[in-house]
Amino acid sequence: MMCQLCGANIRGLGSSETTLVSIVANPVQSPPNFPEGPGKDDKLPDNNEIIGPLVIAQLLHNEKTLLAIGNELGLSGWGLNNSGYCSWLGIACGSNNSMVEKLDLSRRGLQGNVTLISELKALKWLDLSYNNFHGSSPPAFGNLSELEFLDLSSNKFGSSIPTELGRLRNLRSLNLSNNWLTGAIPNELEGLKKFNIFKFLQID
Question: Is the preceding omega at residue 100 within 30 degrees of 0, hence cis?
Fold first, then answer.
């Protein structure tokens, strides 16, 4: 589907005004059904199968990344009691209880650098809405090739929409509303073929 409004300008708005941009296609009414995480005695997720060295390396990488994210954002509950990361608040893993597929950190008053989240390559669902994140929206989120749902709304992200988001070929729902975005809607968003509805608010 062609993006009729790509290239249109976005007004730069302050915190007292309603901001751009809600882009929604097949809006997701509720999160996918992710399985519960493993028991708290599991240091790393375990699906009772033989795990190869590459998988173990990925699990260790995920845990290291999540601990770094938790430290950066002040998520004090992550990593306590030797619990497996699939059981940490806001995290859900896939059917094999190993790869992080959902990260919901909405409405927690968080601030800090969220770029490290782009290291969680299996993410399908990322919700960072209603926090205090500021600066530019991370271009590195364009590397999350499995992402289907992205909500960065109601923060203080500024500057322009990263053109890298156009690489998210599986993306179905994108919400950037109530931020301080400026510039034009990237033409690269035209490549998001899974969008059926484009809805842009307050465009010059």
Answer: no
24: enclosing H helix or E strand = strand 22-24
Domains observed in the chain: 1-32+124-204 (3.80.10.10), 35-104+112-119 (no CATH)
Residue 56 DSSP SS3: helix
φ, ψ for residue 194, nearest 5 deg: -80, -5
Please tell me the pTM assigned to this model. Answer: 0.76
Q: Minimal CA–CA distance to 21: which of 178, 194, 193, 188?
A: 178
Asked which of 27-41, 45-59, 89-103 is least confident by mean pLDDT, the reply is: 27-41
> What does the pLDDT average to over 13-31?
46
Tell me: pLDDT of 132 over 90: yes
